[in-house]
Structures are given as structure tokens and as C-alpha cells.
Amino acid sequence: MTQAKKVSLVLEDGTRFEGKSFGYDHSIAGEVVFYTAMTGYPESLTDPSYTGQILVSTYPMIGNYGVPHDLLDEGIHAHYESHKVHISGLIISDYSSEYSHWNAQKSLGDWLKESRVPGLYGIDTRALTKILRVKGSMLGKIEFEDEPVDFYDPNKENLVAIASIQKKEVYGKGQHKVVLIDCGVKNNIIRCLLDRDATVIRVPWDYDFSNEEYDGVFISNGPGDPARCEKTVANIKKVMDLEKPIMGICLGNQLLARAAGAETYKLKFGHRSHNQPVLLAGTDRCFITSQNHGYVVDPNTLSSDWEALFTNVNDSTNEGIRHKSKPFFSTQFHPEASSGPVDTEYLFDEFIQNIVDFKQKA
């Protein structure tokens, strides 16, 4: 490994961490957040929900299994969750420049350089994470000494407009036609729908799909504040009037809730991990889930027609909602995982069954 450049991570409260560069040598700014997953960095780095964020890994060593081959399967990347790296920067404790995996094509450092994304190692991520847990997610900047940069708050922008596709795309030829509202969708959501005999009609976040032929609507995950997606919420309300089946994930949970008249709010430091426990309403069934979000639904603002579907066991925040009589439901966690546990993938089956039942009634 060549001599690494010295670089700093500076938080908005003035805290400074000194580290070394293993990615692209370029100063950037964003929101500093942490995630506690042990594995799955290729999937996490390509998750559009991380748009505008500097990601801190709490697991001490990253990079030991490299980065997989960039292959396409049915029009989407086989091993990535989108077509590119979406994080603004990566902060880790120890970088493994040597990697070994049957599917590895390149090192993590080389991938970051190709993607023009800075990466820092040699940072005390334990101390950094303790600061973020106490003070909450903070603005920060990765700064090389010869390239100063100002702080930048990504939450002041409509990040969904950045993460979403620009024009409609169609995948598969299944019997169930699903409109997928792309707010920054992960590829495994598309894979899960294709595996269940669906034709996926992927549309931009603000696309009016009222003239499309479809059997159900899926609202994807995505970055940023759901309050900035007023056009998406307006289109969801149109579907609710038709009573066609709806399922949402992550940001999709928040947008469905807002379409139902509920409110959302920002968490102190969010949920970003593979081990978030959620409890299914009315049961003792607890599931371990993969999560990546900074905003949640306020269940106290749901109307009497709606109810909480899942609740987070750690902090009692909302993890999903459902309509009491119509085929609408959503989850704050990621049933498609990738990476993470797949305990709740059965929810895709329930969505497809709702479509089958609706078509039989029509």
C-alpha cells in the first residue's frame, strides 16, 4: 500500500479526528451518521438512502473481502443495490488493503477512488460514535489540508429528486403489474418483486402514473426528509382513492403515512444496522431487521382508520403501519434486506396476495 495522505474529519461542533486516506483524495461535506452492521459494505455504500451522508462503520475492520463483480441481471446490478456508490464519504477504524473472496473484483479503496468518494481509516470510530449517540447525527466534513470545504446540510435539499431515476423503466414480464415509485429504490426490492411473478414499472418520484395500467403500487426507500416529497404524497392519495393494494418500505412507510394525514419527525441518530428488533402488533412475534433511516412516523397522528403494524423494541418508535380495512401497509425496516436478515421477506408475499385478491374481486 502506498503512503496514505493525512486527512481530517471535522464535526460541526469543532471536534476533529485525524486519519489517513484510502479512497479518493478530495474534500467533501455532509451529514455524519453511523451504522453497526458487521458485513455488507458493498450493499450499504450503493444504497441510495445514504445520499448526502458521511458513513461511519462501527465494525473495526472493513475491506477484507473486497468488492464484487459489477454484473447486470435482468437490467439491474446483481451485487449492488444501485448503479453507483451513493455515500459522500466513508469513515472506518482499520482498512484491509488485502482482500480475499471468490467474487471479489477489486479492493474497497480502488472502488472508492473510481467512484470519486473519499475514505478515511485510522479514526477512533468508537469515540466518534459515542459523540453521535449523545449529540445526534451531525454535519461534518472530510478535509484535506490543501482543500478547505464548507459544511453542507443535505437535509435542506430534496434528496429524493437526486436519488430517483429520471424516466420510466420496466423490468420483467410477470402477471402482476406493479408500479414502483422510485424514491431511491434498492435493487433487491426489484429482485423480490420479480421473483414473485411481477412486472415492475419503475417510475420517478414525482411521476403521475394515473394513466398507467397496474395492479398495485410499491413505494420505495430513499434519502432525506419525507416532507419534501409533496408530489409523491399527492400521487399516493390518488391510488388510495382507487383502493388498489399498496406496500411501502422505509421512506415509503413515511410517505404512505403522510398521504394518510399523519406526521413524521427526525430521530436523534437514526437506525442503521442489521439487528433492529421489531414487534408485530397484537402478537409476541419479534423479528430481527435491517434498517437505514433517520426519519420515522408519529403513530399518535394516525387517523382511526389506520394502526401501527410493527414497533421497534429498542426505542418504541414506529416500524410500520396498515389500514384497518383496505390493502395498504408499509414497513420502516427493509424486508428485502441486502444486506442483513431476511426474516420478514414474507411481507412481499402478502403484498402479492393482496394484488391477487383485489384482481379476483374486480
Automatic annotation (TrEMBL):
It catalyses: hydrogencarbonate + L-glutamine + 2 ATP + H2O = carbamoyl phosphate + L-glutamate + 2 ADP + phosphate + 2 H(+); L-glutamine + H2O = L-glutamate + NH4(+). GO terms for molecular function: ATP binding; carbamoyl-phosphate synthase (glutamine-hydrolyzing) activity; glutaminase activity. The active site is at C250, H334, E336. The keyword Nucleotide-binding applies. It comes from the Bacteria. Residues 1-176 are annotated as: CPSase. Keywords: Amino-acid biosynthesis, Arginine biosynthesis, ATP-binding, Glutamine amidotransferase, Ligase, Nucleotide-binding, Pyrimidine biosynthesis. InterPro entries: Anth_synth/Amidotransfase (IPR050472), CarbamoylP_synth_ssu (IPR006274), CarbamoylP_synth_ssu_N (IPR002474), CarbP_synth_ssu_N_sf (IPR036480), Class_I_gatase-like (IPR029062), CPSase_GATase1 (IPR035686), GATASE (IPR017926). SUPFAM superfamilies: Carbamoyl phosphate synthetase, small subunit N-terminal domain, Class I glutamine amidotransferase-like. It holds the Pfam family CPSase_sm_chain. Residues 5-143 form the Carbamoyl-phosphate synthase small subunit N-terminal domain. Transmembrane segments: none annotated. Its EC number is 6.3.5.5. The keyword Cell membrane does not apply. Pathway: Pyrimidine metabolism; UMP biosynthesis via de novo pathway; (S)-dihydroorotate from bicarbonate: step 1/3; Amino-acid biosynthesis; L-arginine biosynthesis; carbamoyl phosphate from bicarbonate: step 1/1. One of its GO terms (biological process) is 'de novo' UMP biosynthetic process. L-glutamine binds at S49, G222, G224, L251, Q254, N292, G294, Y295. It is an enzyme of class 6 (ligase). Belongs to the CarA family. Small subunit of the glutamine-dependent carbamoyl phosphate synthetase (CPSase). CPSase catalyzes the formation of carbamoyl phosphate from the ammonia moiety of glutamine, carbonate, and phosphate donated by ATP, constituting the first step of 2 biosynthetic pathways, one leading to arginine and/or urea and the other to pyrimidine nucleotides. The small subunit (glutamine amidotransferase) binds and cleaves glutamine to supply the large subunit with the substrate ammonia. Composed of two chains; the small (or glutamine) chain promotes the hydrolysis of glutamine to ammonia, which is used by the large (or ammonia) chain to synthesize carbamoyl phosphate. Tetramer of heterodimers (alpha,beta)4. This is Carbamoyl phosphate synthase small chain.
